[in-house]
Design a protein that fits this description.
Blueprint: H1 2-25, H2 42-54, H3 56-63, H4 66-69, H5 74-78, H6 89-92, H7 117-120, H8 125-132, H9 139-146, H10 148-151, H11 157-168, E1 174-175, E2 178-179, H12 212-216, H13 218-221, H14 232-238, H15 240-248, H16 272-276, H17 317-328, H18 334-368, H19 381-402, H20 406-434, H21 455-458
Antiparallel strand pairs: 1-2
Length: about 450
């Protein structure tokens, strides 16, 4: 009897606790899952459900994106016309499979694997228009106009594909109904697409998250802007801006809405995007990285952007400098900003007058007298010396001064310019004194590249 009484007492005590626990369960968050709750075409549902199983990483990336939050599905970006040159033939095969619930013909719809700026322009017209006139979008044209490796075929087509074209972009082609593997995969910033548009937004906003946050971080730019000839990422990390970013970058608000990312509010020191693309003060956001530039520091001879023959900018450098100054003035005083530009302008003048122009005049003299052979390039030592004087040390000196990185302005820059210049002048003095032709490397390796400029850009002969 006593035992029965104790059991009833325990049950009575547990009942309120059990009811309370059951009630509190309602407040627990559910396991995170993706649910299709908004109206979308059946074909879009098929895309999502299929890719959730076939490519779960791709699906998860998209599901966490702003696109997914805005009900923008695979079809909004990938849907194509059956007559489009880049329609995926392989994708049709999925509709013939019997082991997939959505692999039937009622879900069949033409899609293109390559999403281009033209596709993105349906929702982002201003950004696409700005990007189209930038150096980024037109970098293949620029590269072919100034790069001797391409014009003289001094590297192989595959060396270009895995190196140069990875960042600059390929000219996409179709072979046997499929994207030609000689041109694909590629998300180069100047890629020539089959619909005639230039570039790939996914160079900076990678698939399938398409994150604004990612594009605001300097590491994204550092995918391509690194190395001996344009080490902007290394220069940035040496600068005070980069130092502050490394110390406080984890506190930055990278997810601020487009056009609202504000210095002093969302971040303490700028990233690459802050200076070259993001808006601040009275300066508007832009996807044209040619804006805000007052010197063309990638060129052999430093010129104003409007005078850069490979791709003359339709800008006034004074207007663009004022835009960049407006960005600087969000954090710095006028005396600081004016002093910086005085230093930068002086560095440009000294590079042009002391190093480049005398070296160029000497090379012209050697070619004129037949002591150097102009039919090929890089097969004579002086050609390499001159190329690296402007393409390596000269760029590092100018870009180091431009981004306030002292080690790159001096030790990796002007210091090495001096040694390169001395070697060039010493060797050329001997050739002129002895009236002797320079030694030529007859068996230059793998100089097999196609020297025909892409007709998609330059037109057919």
């Amino acid at each position: 009897m006593k035992r029965t009484w104790l059991l009833w007492l325990c049950a009575a005590m547990l009942l309120p606790a059990t009811a309370q626990a059951a009630e509190s369960v309602k407040n627990y968050p559910k396991m995170k899952e993706f649910r299709i709750e908004r109206a979308m075409p059946d074909q879009a549902v098929a895309c999502i459900e299929c890719h959730r199983k076939e490519t779960p990483g791709l699906f998860a990336d998209w599901a966490a994106s702003r696109h997914a939050s805005a009900n923008i599905t695979c079809l909004d970006c990938h849907q194509a016309d059956e007559r489009d040159a880049d329609v995926s033939v392989d994708h049709y095969q999925y509709y013939e499979r019997g082991d997939m619930p959505y692999g039937t013909k009622e879900y069949r719809i033409p899609v293109a694997a390559v999403v281009t700026p033209k596709d993105c322009s349906r929702c982002h017209p201003d950004e696409t228009e700005q990007y189209a006139r930038s150096k980024h979008a037109n970098t293949i044209e620029i590269m072919w106009k100034i790069d001797p490796w391409l014009n003289m075929g001094m590297n192989s087509d595959n060396e270009r594909k895995t190196g140069c074209y990875y960042c600059h972009g390929t000219v996409l082609k179709v072979k046997d109904g499929k994207l030609d593997p000689a041109t694909w995969p590629n998300v180069g910033v100047g890629r020539v697409n089959l619909d005639g548009s230039l570039g790939a937004c996914t160079s900076c906003h990678t698939r399938h998250r398409f994150s604004v946050m990612e594009a605001r971080k300097p590491e994204t730019c550092g995918q391509c802007h690194l190395g001996p000839d344009h080490p902007q990422i290394e220069i940035y990390f040496e600068s005070k801006h980069g130092d502050i970013y490394k110390a406080f970058g984890h506190e930055y608000n990278y997810d601020a809405a487009p056009g609202t990312w504000t210095p002093g509010v969302d971040y303490r020191a700028p990233t690459c995007a802050s200076c070259h693309m993001s808006g601040a003060g009275g300066t508007m956001t832009t996807h044209d990285v040619t804006e805000r530039l007052s010197w063309e520091t990638q060129a052999p001879l430093t010129v104003r952007p409007s005078e850069f023959k490979a791709f003359p900018a339709k800008t006034d450098w004074r207007v663009e400098r004022d835009k960049m100054k407006d960005i600087c003035l969000q954090c710095h005083g006028k005396a600081w900003v004016d002093g910086f530009y005085a230093d930068f302008d002086k560095a440009v003048e000294e590079y042009n007058e002391v190093y480049y122009k005398p070296a160029k005049a000497r090379m012209d003299e050697l070619y004129e007298k037949g002591l150097l052979d102009s039919s090929r390039i890089f097969d004579e030592k002086l050609e390499v010396e001159f190329y690296e004087l402007w393409h390596h040390e000269g760029r590092r000196a100018r870009m180091g001064a431009m981004m306030m990185a002292p080690d790159y302005a001096w030790w990796h820059g002007f210091y090495e310019c001096k040694h390169r210049f001395n070697e060039l002048m010493h060797e050329s003095d001997l050739l002129l004194k002895e009236n002797r032709k320079a030694h030529r490397y007859e068996n230059f390796p793998n100089a097999t590249g196609n020297t025909t400029r892409p007709p998609e850009i330059f037109g057919k002969k």
